[in-house]
Amino acid sequence: MAPSTILFLIIVYFGILFLISHFVSKKDSGNDAFFKANKNSKWYLVAFGMIGTALSGVTFISVPGEVGSPNGEQFKYFQFVLGNAIGFVIIAKILLPLYYRMNLTSIYSYIEQRLGIYSYKTAATIFLISRTIGSSFRLYLVVIVLQRYVFDFYGIPFAVTLLISLALIFAYTYRGGLKTIIITDTLQTFFLVTSVFLTIYFICQSLNLGVFDAFEAVKNSNYSKVFFFDDFVSNKFHFVKQILGGIFVTIAMVGLDQDLMQKNLSCKNIGEAQKNMFTFTGIFVLINIFFLSVGALLYIYANKNGIAVPTDLITGKPRTDLLFPEIAFHHLTLIPSVIFLLGLTAATFATTDSALTALTTSFCVDFLGMDKEENRNKPNIVRNRHFVHIAFSFLMFLVIVFFNTINDSSVVGMIFRVASYTYGPLLGLYCFGLFAKSKTVKDKFVPLICLLAPALTYFISENSKTLFFGYVFDNELIILNGLITYVGLLLISKPIAEVRRY
């Protein structure tokens, strides 16, 4: 597919998003619409749209690519997905009722009421840092794909491509915020899901395989191993590690994340929010099965046609996450290429627009108090929200430019891993709030605990083979992070009765 064709399709795609934004926000662009969609969202739209938010562009290209990774990952990711599903159910049954009972706009307001102002600001800051780094990294990896296959052809610098991307996202979200995103994410998820199914169809067609033949081909290939039970200590793919990691990563990075929870809190009531979560869970598991199947079929296709895994232009190392775009753009016909582009674009921008809205909401509510009754009718309050939105767009731009300057996948990967570490303290804070009900904390010391816990977790992770007889951590590391935070909070805790006397 020619770069001009790809560019034309991107322009048409954003034109549709702008039309949706205009019609959704023209009657109401106030803060209630931006922060909570006026608490009038349809649960089924939220459930479907959340798929696009949860499955970023990185998932779209990396999960299929990892199936044939030299590390032998195959379908091991599905173990993690099963853990995710359990985590979603826990969120629906425990956290959502808490948030609705307290009628929260920012979920971190719970920490303020339970533990104090320092704890509250710490929790909100953790989210702002984590989501800024994580979302920037996701957008960065996909902009690299667009840069390599489209914008390099026109001689457009990476920074300009990135600036245009963020400006477009800002333009269709700054007025309606969450109210707009509920609709645009539904459309983008439709493109994402459709692209997965049609990609499978077109690859099967190229391989002369029917539906059942494709199933057998994947099943009998070297890429379809799902469950790993060997060597619990040193194998990071082990079933128990992946399940536990999936559960607690989901609780921390979804249930304690303003981005994903903001959509749930826009439903009319707790019943609809829970229906949303249960429906979302089923779709999430199913769509990941198809992503993994796409990966297996891509490698079968590549092996049959002698297609090598693309390499990094700088380091020369294999980049499995570029196999999908390489085959879609250079080895399939026009329609499959268009389908891939729509899916990748939808997955990327559904994640980024949602993140920018959540970051803006958290800062406006948690640090500027825009949801408080005394501030709601202040002049220029909506204008101030626009400035915050612009500021986070620019911050994300700077972070991504920094990633691109480093241009070292191992260093950038470590930065992304550090971002995931920061959710551990959130897990510890909420566990303390929910389960240590007879205690509170010496509030001023909470920021220190939340700094020390990830640092100690990193030290233990790097030395786990020595400390724990060869044990290797994977996603379950967040449990250790949360546990260290919880113990630290216990050390600075005191009975609630003692606080009440003063």
TrEMBL record:
One of its GO terms (molecular function) is symporter activity. The keyword Nucleotide-binding does not apply. It is a multi-pass membrane protein. It is found in: Cell membrane. InterPro entries: Na/Glc_symporter_sf, Na/solute_symporter, Sodium:Solute_Symporter_SSF. Belongs to the sodium:solute symporter (SSF) (TC 2.A.21) family. This is Na+/proline symporter. It comes from Flavobacterium omnivorum.
